[in-house]
Amino acid sequence: GMHVEVKDPEGLVLSRQYGSEGRFTFTSHTPGEHQICLHSNSTRMALFAGGRLRVHLDIQVGEHANNYPEIAAKDKLTELQLRARQLLDQVEQIQKEQDYQRYREERFRLTSESTNQRVLWWSIAQTVILILTGIWQMRHLKSFFEAKKLV
Amino acid sequence: MLRPGSARRWLAAAGRWSCRLLALLLLVPGPGGASEITFELPDNAKQCFYEDITQGTKCTLEFQVITGGHYDVDCRLEDPDGNVLYKEMKKQYDSFTFTASKNGTYKFCFSNEFSTFTHKTVYFDFQVGEDPPLFPSENRVSALTQMESACVSIHEALKSVIDYQTHFRLREAQGRSRAEDLNTRVAYWSVGEALILLVVSIGQVFLLKSFFSDKRTTTTRVGS
């Protein structure tokens, strides 16, 4: 069988064990990178080194997950209405993608501002370290030369 | 870049989770239509995908490396007899169109074997033939009305918009990955530089002191 795990940016969404065939659906709640992990726990595979597994995978996202002939039959739509429905779904997907880009731009702006702050503080700290080291050097050498009666 | 849109998107870390003894070979289905997948390619690894294609179908393979190292990967496409149709080493992005000359299972592989310790995230989009029609059982004897033709053109235009958005999203992810690499390198360098500064300044003082230390012989007067 196969073990399926789905993770979103916030944590685990789905974790289930399936037999040799399986089907799962999920709706994303946060924008960002989602991971789908497939893991085989077939003990027969583990025994023979280099065992290979051929997996058939079919993933549908967004409006492509819709089955239009089914929707047409269920809602009793004419051809034109169905086409309009498909266009509406596509436009909705485009809108969601643009929302995602807006979210990313905001995150990027926050990251840039925090980097800017950190660079500023780091430069100040580095200058202070430099000056303090210089002062320490001079005082240490001065007391050393005075002890040696060279000054 | 006007292309038919893509049907599926998948982000997977299959290699990481599978037992190291197993190589997961994934069959990407698609009687017409397209598959787009973003997957993780570990270092020194090769990942292959298979597709059953009928003769005479026009197919397009497009890939882009999103994160990792120098953002390049080896790609190889073979027909059912093993003839290499496309082979490129260390490419960041490429697009390849071909017409299937025979029926069978076509295979394409992405390889990160030249890299010792960087994982790569690779996106690819494999378009097989045209998208399936909205009404599979209908026979298109009558011509499309003007409204229907308008709907078809809007559909194609929107597919192209979605396609551009996908590429924009990938570029954003790639840019972010590069920025994070840069950030790490600058952080390490800054800490290293501060340490070197301290070590050198303390070392200078002690070295200078050692020049003036008494050696039980003549003490030279250092004039100004």
TrEMBL record, chain A:
Domain GOLD: 1-61
The keyword Membrane belongs to this UniProt entry's keyword annotation: yes
A single Gene Ontology CC term: endoplasmic reticulum membrane
Pfam families linked to this entry: EMP24_GP25L (PF01105)
Membrane topology: Single-pass type I membrane protein
Superkingdom, taxonomy of origin: Eukaryota
Cell compartment(s), UniProt: Endoplasmic reticulum membrane; Membrane
Main location: endoplasmic reticulum
Record's keyword annotation contains Phosphoprotein: no
Keywords assigned: Endoplasmic reticulum, Membrane, Signal, Transmembrane, Transmembrane helix
Transmembrane region(s): 119-138
Record-stated family: Belongs to the EMP24/GP25L family.
Protein's recorded name: Transmembrane emp24 domain-containing protein 4-like protein
TrEMBL record, chain B:
Topology class, membrane: Single-pass type I membrane protein
Record-linked Pfam families: EMP24_GP25L
Domain GOLD: residue ranges: 46-128
GO cellular component: COPI-coated vesicle membrane; COPII-coated ER to Golgi transport vesicle; endoplasmic reticulum; endoplasmic reticulum membrane; endoplasmic reticulum-Golgi intermediate compartment; endoplasmic reticulum-Golgi intermediate compartment membrane; ER to Golgi transport vesicle membrane; Golgi apparatus
Transmembrane segments: 186-208
Keyword flag Disulfide bond: no
Main location: membrane
Superkingdom as given in the UniProt entry: Eukaryota
Record's keyword annotation contains Plastid: no
Compartments where located: Cytoplasmic vesicle, COPI-coated vesicle membrane; Cytoplasmic vesicle, COPII-coated vesicle membrane; Endoplasmic reticulum membrane; Endoplasmic reticulum-Golgi intermediate compartment membrane
Keywords attached to this entry: Cytoplasmic vesicle, Endoplasmic reticulum, Glycoprotein, Golgi apparatus, Membrane, Protein transport, Signal, Transmembrane, Transmembrane helix, Transport
Signal peptide, first to last residue: 1-34
Gene Ontology process terms (BP): endoplasmic reticulum to Golgi vesicle-mediated transport; Golgi organization; intracellular protein transport
Role noted for this protein: Potential role in vesicular protein trafficking, mainly in the early secretory pathway. Appears to play a role in the biosynthesis of secreted cargo including processing and post-translational modifications.
Family per similarity comment: Belongs to the EMP24/GP25L family.
Name of this protein: Transmembrane emp24 domain-containing protein 7
UniProt source species: Equus caballus
Gene label: TMED7
